[in-house]
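Quick one: co-fold with BIS(adenosine)-5'-pentaphosphate.
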Amino acid sequence: MRMILLGPPGAGKGTQAQRLMDTYGIVQLSTGDMLRAAVAAGTEVGLRAKSVMEAGALVSDDIVVGIISDRVDEADCKNGFILDGFPRTLAQAEALEAMLTEKALRLDAVVEMQVDDGLLVDRITGRYTCANCGAGYHDKNLQPKVAGICDNCGRTEFNRRADDNAETVVSRLKAYHEQTAPLLPFYRDKGILKTVDGMADIDEVTRQMKALLGAG
Ligand code: AP5
Ligand code: MG
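Sure, here it is.
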């Protein structure tokens, strides 16, 4: 299965992608995670992306299209992938279409996660991840079973993202509404857009996704 998770910052794209990976045996391709890794490694792409991401704006189309085009050729993408945070502009969506056609691959579904803006600031400012394995948590909505210890790997160090502050969230939401929301009619016209209620709790959103996508 090849699918796109489409939704504003904090909608739950990363949270659901992690769950769908296990269900469908496919990989998560998050351009946000890839760009953060490039920033941490100090690569040329990372140096170009750092200040843009910290301002909550979008990194240039050519950078992210290049990253995804290389990544989908890797062996672990053979069974399919979940695009998380890509495409984010009409130019990226068109580049993806051309890329998949050239590789003789088809997109199966685009799932929109609908969440009101008011909820997103709280979700983003409360988010943190395990510094070792990357498992995601939230101060209120998704706490480790034992406080301060990662459920997944047992480690005790956690990170918060540099762009997860109330100020930057406003810019990220603006970028979403102005540059990414136009992808909804683009995919609706192609007949592959599905919608889930991203305001529901995490398990319920997963249930809605699986109902839309089939058992796997
Ligand atoms: P990216 O990393 O993609 O960030 P984003 O789109 O802003 O989305 P988030 O990762 O913040 O949210 P999410 O939807 O994954 O939510 P999560 O599951 O973590 O991009 C970062 C930056 O990189 C961009 O601003 C841009 O600069 C650049 N970039 C990336 N891709 C790009 C592209 N294609 N083109 C150009 N630039 C690009 O959930 C959030 C929190 O809420 C968690 O704590 C979670 O536990 C909790 N939660 C999740 N679901 C629920 C629920 N249903 N109920 C309650 N709590 C929930
Ligand atoms: Mg994410």
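If it helps, The radius of gyration is 17 Å.
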